[in-house]
Amino acid sequence: MAEKIANPVYLAEFNRCVGDNIKNVVRRLRSRGYEASLIRHKTTVILRRPAGQSFRKFKQDIAELVQDDIGSVIVSSTSGKMWLLDNKGNRPGEMQLIDESDV
């Protein structure tokens, strides 16, 4: 059984974030209590959820940062899990767990 990580770090790569401005995404995350910083890759953010925040709220916050009709984001965690939110797909606005067996 995998060990639960107390406060995992996430890597989120945005495609068509709100306003097409990744720096604003980082500012919005920080204003909501996240630790967030850009890395060299243009649209990628490293972040950590605020202590005690639910994963449901985390998913909601991330979904609000991509454009409604065309935005997407892929998120990976230090736990090894990965999620995809693609507003162009058949389940827009829904963060879907990527099954490792699909790789």
Give an account of the 3D structure.
- This protein is α+β, with helices and mostly antiparallel strands.
- It is 18% helix and 28% strand.
- The protein is built from two helices and six strands; from the N terminus they run βαββαβββ.
- It has helices at 22-31, 55-63, and strands at 9-15, 35-38, 44-48, 72-77, 82-86, 96-97.
- It has a six-stranded antiparallel β-sheet with strand order 2-3-1-4-5-6, covered by helices on one side.
- The longest helix has 10 residues, at 22-31.
- It is globular, with a radius of gyration of 13 Å.
SSE blueprint and pairings:
Blueprint: E1 9-15, H1 22-31, E2 35-38, E3 44-48, H2 55-63, E4 72-77, E5 82-86, E6 96-97
Antiparallel strand pairs: 1-3, 1-4, 2-3, 4-5, 5-6
Compose a concise summary of this entry:
With 103 residues, the chain is of the alpha+beta class.
Roughly what percent helix? 10-25%
User: What about the largest sheet?
Assistant: 6 strands, antiparallel
**Euclidean distance between termini CA atoms:** 21 Å
- The coarse overall form would be globular
Low-confidence stretches: none
Summing up helix and strand content along with how strands pair, one would put the structural category as: alpha+beta
Number of helices: 2
- Please give the radius of gyration in angstroms: 13 Å
Strand order of the largest sheet: 2-3-1-4-5-6
Strand content: 25-35%
Q: How many β-strand stretches?
A: 6
Helix and strand run? EHEEHEEE
- Could you tell me the mean pLDDT? 89
